[in-house]
Design a protein that fits this description.
single chain; about 425 residues; alpha+beta; Rossmann fold; 2 domains; binds histidyl-adenosine monophosphate
């Protein structure tokens, strides 16, 4: 009986080859861009107590209501993190980072888990690159963090990103807005979808981002008209600073975000290549979350970007993800040649030159084919006759009839360096 081949779980993916390279590049670029803005990396656990997410993200959000992977080993309720913010703020409080009174700028990358219906750009395990700046309410920080996100897209070659911006107020002014929304939506209620009916009582702001009922909810009042003076001034200043940084944005009254912790500025980066799930990333200010999870109040702002969605946009835009050429491939003739090649490659690698060889005892022709397939620039060839003469053959693999020279063993490293520097 043949066993059925096991597959990864629906909504999860393997990344390797060209996709794996792009994935790694996107993470490496994230580290570079966060360093430019002086963010420090934080690593938090992949699972946390369920209560952290229920309290942090909000009990009536889609995530907490129906999308969490929760398990109970030995009676303890644990959840695979559906997002990064709650864990970062838990760590911030647990390690008393608030005590120095400084602004803490933290970034992270890692897998997140949501039990959503899988489709293009929507997975059950996906990666987020995100950041949280905790300790300042300055609207200039809101503008800087949006500029950081856009800087990241530009380094990745992702053009055509739209920045959508809104302010959803604070606990002082939002209750009035909520009541106004409920009042205006009441006559529409019987005709709204099941989701909106549920949201009407529990989270009426989310009536605004229902795609199905968009035409019906278009006439609902804007948050802007209900902002208190502080939120209004904060939002105006954030927009002015964005203008100062040369950031184009679109005000979007329907942008309310799906997590409960937001206050004041909210934003989303969207891209047309993504289709229905068009958000590359999103975030905003969350001045109440630190107080919600701990005993101190501390304003904060952050965002997260979906790495798989970046890859969809990059694929559509055909941003280059060429395989990097390998500088040197070692070709061994016979057992002695193989030992010698192994030692020469070790010397190159310790000098910082990437190099590889073919294992086993294949013919020279097969090894040269492997070198070409790998896109090597130079082949280093050694057999018994080279060893007797104390030389190594260096063959240039670029072009049709690459030159081939014999170099004394003592000079091979220098020659390799010169050749890859000059021609590559
Ligand atoms: P979010 O909007 O839920 O925000 O997720 C941020 C990004 O993660 C989305 O824009 C999308 O690119 C990606 N994403 C979300 N769900 C999925 C999924 N099922 N499959 C693939 N990609 C997905 C947050 O998570 C907040 N923690 C962001 C934040 C940080 N706000 C303040 N600080």
């Amino acid at each position: 009986m043949t066993q059925q081949l096991l597959q990864c779980v629906e909504g999860t993916h393997d990344y390797f080859g060209a996709v794996g390279r792009r994935f790694a590049e996107n993470l490496a670029t994230a580290a570079k861009v966060f360093a430019l803005y002086d963010y420090e990396r934080i690593v938090t656990p992949i699972f946390e107590p369920t209560e952290l997410f229920a309290r942090g993200i909000g009990a009536t959000t889609d995530i907490v209501e129906k999308e969490m992977f929760t398990f109970q080993p030995g009676g303890e309720q644990l959840t695979l993190r559906p997002e990064g913010t709650a864990g970062v703020i838990r760590a911030y409080l647990q390690h008393n980072l608030h005590k120095d009174g400084l602004l803490h700028k933290l970034w992270y990358v890692g897998p997140m888990f949501r039990r959503e219906r899988p489709q293009k750009g929507r997975q059950r395990q996906f990666y987020q690159v995100g950041c949280e700046a905790v300790g300042s309410s300055d609207p200039m920080l809101d503008a800087e963090i949006i500029a950081l996100g856009l800087h990241y897209f530009s380094l990745l070659g992702i053009t055509g990103v739209t920045t959508r911006l809104n302010s959803i107020g604070c606990p002082a002014c939002r209750p009035r807005y909520r009541s106004a929304l409920r009042e205006a939506a009441a006559p529409l209620l019987p005709s709204l979808c099941e989701n909106c009916q549920k949201r009407y009582d529990r989270n009426p702001l989310r009536l605004l981002d229902c795609k199905r009922d968009a035409a019906k909810t278009a006439a609902l009042p804007d948050a802007a008209a209900f902002l208190c003076a502080e939120c209004r001034d904060h939002f105006a200043a954030a927009q002015e600073f964005l203008g100062g940084l040369g950031v184009d944005f679109q005000l979007d009254r329907t942008l309310v975000r799906g997590l409960d912790y937001y206050t004041k500025t909210v934003f989303e980066f969207t891209h047309p290549a993504l289709g229905a799930q068009d958000a590359l990333g999103g975030g905003g200010r969350y001045d109440g979350l630190v107080g919600e999870l701990g005993a101190v109040e501390m304003p904060a702002v952050g965002f997260a970007i979906g790495v798989e969605r970046l890859m969809i946009a990059q694929e559509a835009l055909k941003t280059c993800n060429c395989e990097p050429p390998l500088p040197v491939f070692g070709v061994a003739l016979g057992e002695n040649g193989k030992r010698a090649i192994c030692g020469l490659l070790a010397r190159l690698r310790h000098a910082g030159v990437p190099a590889a060889m073919d294992f086993g005892a294949r013919s020279m022709k097969a090894q040269m084919r492997a070198a070409n397939r790998r896109g090597a620039l130079l082949a280093l060839i050694v057999g018994d006759s080279e060893l007797e003469k104390g030389v190594v053959v260096i063959k240039d693999l670029r072009g049709e009839n690459g030159e081939q020279i014999e170099v004394p063993l003592a000079e091979f490293e220098q020659t390799v360096r010169e050749k890859i520097r000059v021609k590559s």
